[in-house]
Design a protein that fits this description.
This protein is an alpha/beta fold. It has helices spanning 16-29, 46-52, 79-84, 95-100, 105-117, 130-134, 138-150, 179-197, 199-204, 218-222, 239-246, and strands at 5-9, 36-40, 58-60, 89-92, 121-126, 161-165, 207-210, 229-232. Helices cover 41% and strands 14% of the residues. The longest helix is centred in the last third of the chain and has 19 residues, at 179-197. The protein is globular, with a radius of gyration of 17 Å. The structure holds 1,3-dihydroxyacetonephosphate. 1,3-dihydroxyacetonephosphate is lined by residues 9, 94, 166, 171-172, 210-213, 231-235.
């Protein structure tokens, strides 16, 4: 069965004290749930977060990494550094990184390869912009993003890949894709995977939805058959809201 996942992407929020506080609130509220719970704090707090959640069913993941093994890349973090502090999973391809740091499909393909070579898991993000959706190109764009960054891989690589559909127009805007829009896109993504890798692989890959998931809309979004969880931005910064979303399963 596909994994159910609720992951909080904290983005560039929370210093050490706020990280400690939020994690201790999460630890008080966490119960065994059907969904795996992940949080992605900033790089500077990953080690603390990893240590602080060791005995709890919360996986700490990174928001990004470089594709190179090491070298003269000032300000960057590599896979080995993440692994050295216990981090096993990295978010790659977030639309904010694509938009503000010019991350291309080609660079993302390299990052995915590096992560997998280091036995890490990847939460791979993609999604169309509003203009693409309005023009009716959303499926073409999403298919292209997936193909360019992932379709050089073998089917077995998908054991370590989770997909996250995040329509850019729904991120941080309060405007969520409707549950049906999410379902339609997730079913389309599964079809794209099935055409390339076969139905078994397509059925085994978890596909998360991200973009203004809140306590009041999570249940309906998660009730859709091809939606296997969520990647949560703003609402993951408050323990109460985050758990309301986790409990929506
Ligand atoms: P919001 O939940 O704030 O819309 O952010 C979604 C997101 O970008 C998660 O990666």
């Amino acid at each position: 069965m596909r994994k159910k996942i609720v992951a909080g992407n904290w983005k560039m929020n929370n210093g050490l004290i706020q990280t400690e506080t939020l994690i201790s609130e999460l630890k008080q509220q966490i119960k065994t749930s059907d969904a795996e719970v992940m949080i992605a704090p900033a790089f500077t707090n990953l080690w603390h977060a990893f240590e602080a959640t060791r005995q709890y069913p919360i996986e700490v993941v990174a928001q990004n990494m470089h594709y190179a093994e090491n070298g003269a890349y000032t300000g960057e973090i590599n896979a080995g550094m993440l692994k050295s502090i216990g981090i096993q999973t990295v978010i790659l391809g977030h639309s904010e990184r694509r938009a503000y740091y010019n991350e291309t499909d080609e660079a993302l393909a390299k990052k995915v390869d590096t992560a997998l070579n280091h036995d890490m898991s990847v939460i791979f993000c993609f999604g169309e912009e509003l203009a693409d959706r309005k023009a009716g190109n959303h499926e073409v764009i999403v298919q292209e993003q997936i193909e360019k960054a992932l379709f050089h891989l073998d089917a077995s690589a998908f054991e370590n890949i989770v997909l996250a559909y995040e329509p850019v127009w729904a991120i941080g805007t309060g405007e969520t894709a409707s549950p049906q829009q999410a379902q339609d896109m997730h079913a389309f993504i599964r079809k794209v995977l099935a055409n390339k890798y076969g139905q078994d692989t397509a059925n085994s890959v978890s596909i998360l939805y991200g973009g203004s998931v809140k306590p009041n809309n999570a249940k309906e979004i998660f009730s859709k058959p091809d939606v296997d969880g969520g990647l949560i931005g703003g609402a993951s910064l408050k323990a109460e809201d985050f758990f309301a979303i986790v409990n929506a399963f």
